[in-house]
């Protein structure tokens, strides 16, 4: 079922416009059309230190140019240099907003108020991943300039991918002081489940500059949600202490990635949901990453209860990125701030049910810096 785009027109962007908002300039330009003729725009946000590009196709982060310890800038996210690259890639979700339900739903099935719903199984034909066979990452969102950034809007109709209720989703990207802030909101016409997140892959050495195994990761979590072989949570919360998942102190991503630990073997590396310390609904520290080679740092704060740390395990050298370099295994990592995977099927997990009259709201902030 096709999405219904809100009335604000994605007119043919014949040229480009620039709006200076405070210290951040916002530039809007055409970025091609989809095969069915929908115009796609790209927005460039620049605050003098960082430059971020975001496209209406999947509401994606296309690039983030950040300085290293010597002031040299490089794009620190994985992606493609054209719309066609993103359209052709249905499996990596580079930079995209994923939904209606980010991460996995077991067997593509869940119930609300006694009614069972079925979502297409696009994860090895067993489970649902990132919203089904045609998720929000493959949709053209409506974009509009706002102070210091851009707001993306998508209306997902009742029954879309099997999910109940017409969902109106807004994602605001703003850039200020080396911080990219993402604010999510959504409303629905029927009780539904929602888990929106961003799926950007980072490499702080620069896109195409080897793997992320030498980057040092800190995750502010004492516990994680262990999974079965299909990467579906068992429902338990287990301590990270004494396991290769203990990132409470900065540790190189590659230091323990090949340890003889069941959860790493099941995922082929890191692909686990961490239960964050801090109060859900209030902005709290999720993670910090330092790249010793370049000096670049990234701090992640969120209002969400969890974060999925994914070490790019399924990249295999078949995809060629912006710089013309093939993306090998561990060429980038994702930090997906979120509610827990398969929450609709685990009553003890924080609820992802959204009801009419309620407004979903969450925030995530990625701040980039330098260590000398």
Describe this structure in words.
The protein is mostly beta strands and 372 residues long. It has 2 helices and 29 strands. The chain has helices spanning 83-88, 262-267, and strands at residues 16-21, 24-33, 39-46, 51-55, 60-67, 73-75, 97-98, 104-105, 109-112, 115-118, 128-129, 142-146, 149-156, 167-176, 179-188, 192-193, 197-198, 201-202, 216-219, 221-224, 238-239, 251-252, 271-276, 284-290, 296-302, 306-310, 333-338, 353-354, 360-370. The chain is globular.
Tell me the overall shape.
globular
Radius of gyration: 19 Å
Number of helices: 2
Average of per-residue pLDDT values: 94
Q: State the major sheet.
A: 9 strands, antiparallel
Residue stretches low in confidence (pLDDT < 50, at least 5 long) are 1-21
What fraction of the residues are assigned to beta strands by DSSP? 35-45%
Helix fraction bin? under 10%
The total strand number stands at 29
Strand order of the largest sheet: 12-13-14-15-29-25-24-19-22
Structural class: mainly beta
First CA to last CA: what distance? 52 Å
Keywords summarizing the entry:
mainly beta; nine-stranded antiparallel sheet; about 5% helix; about 375 residues; six-stranded antiparallel sheet; globular; disordered N terminus
């Amino acid at each position: 079922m096709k999405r219904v785009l809100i009335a604000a027109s994605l007119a043919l962007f014949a040229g480009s416009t620039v709006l200076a908002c405070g210290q951040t300039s916002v530039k809007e330009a055409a970025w091609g059309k989809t095969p069915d003729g929908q115009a796609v725009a790209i927005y460039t946000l620049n605050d003098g230190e960082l430059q971020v590009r975001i496209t209406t196709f999947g509401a994606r982060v296309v690039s983030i140019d950040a300085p290293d310890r010597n002031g040299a800038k490089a794009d620190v996210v994985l992606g493609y240099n054209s719309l066609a690259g993103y359209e052709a890639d249905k499996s990596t979700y580079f930079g995209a907003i994923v939904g209606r339900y980010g991460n996995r739903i077991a067997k593509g099935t869940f119930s609300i108020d006694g009614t069972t719903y079925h979502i297409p199984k696009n994860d090895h034909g067993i489970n649902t991943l990132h919203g089904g066979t045609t998720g929000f990452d493959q949709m053209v969102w409506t974009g509009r300039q706002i102070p210091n950034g851009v707001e993306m809007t998508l209306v997902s109709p009742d029954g879309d991918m099997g999910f109940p209720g017409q969902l109106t989703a807004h994602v605001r990207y703003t850039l200020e002081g080396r911080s990219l802030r993402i604010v999510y909101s959504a409303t629905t016409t029927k009780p539904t489940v929602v888990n929106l997140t961003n799926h950007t892959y980072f490499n702080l050495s620069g896109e195409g500059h080897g793997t992320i195994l030498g980057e040092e990761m800190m995750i502010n979590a004492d516990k994680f949600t262990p999974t079965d072989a299909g990467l579906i949570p068992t429902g338990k919360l287990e301590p990270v202490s004494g396991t290769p998942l203990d990132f409470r102190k900065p540790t190189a991503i590659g230091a323990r990635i090949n340890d003889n630990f069941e959860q790493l073997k099941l995922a082929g590396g890191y692909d686990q949901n961490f239960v964050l310390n801090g109060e859900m609904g209030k902005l709290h520290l999720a993670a910090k990453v330092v790249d010793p080679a370049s000096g670049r740092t990234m701090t992640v704060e969120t209002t969400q209860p969890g974060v999925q740390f994914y070490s790019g395990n399924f990249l295999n050298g078949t995809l060629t990125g912006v710089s013309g370099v093939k993306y090998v295994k561990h060429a980038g990592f994702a930090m997906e701030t979120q509610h827990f995977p398969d929450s609709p099927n685990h009553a003890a997990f924080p609820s992802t049910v959204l009801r009419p009259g309620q407004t979903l709201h969450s925030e995530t902030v990625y701040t980039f810096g330098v260590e000398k």
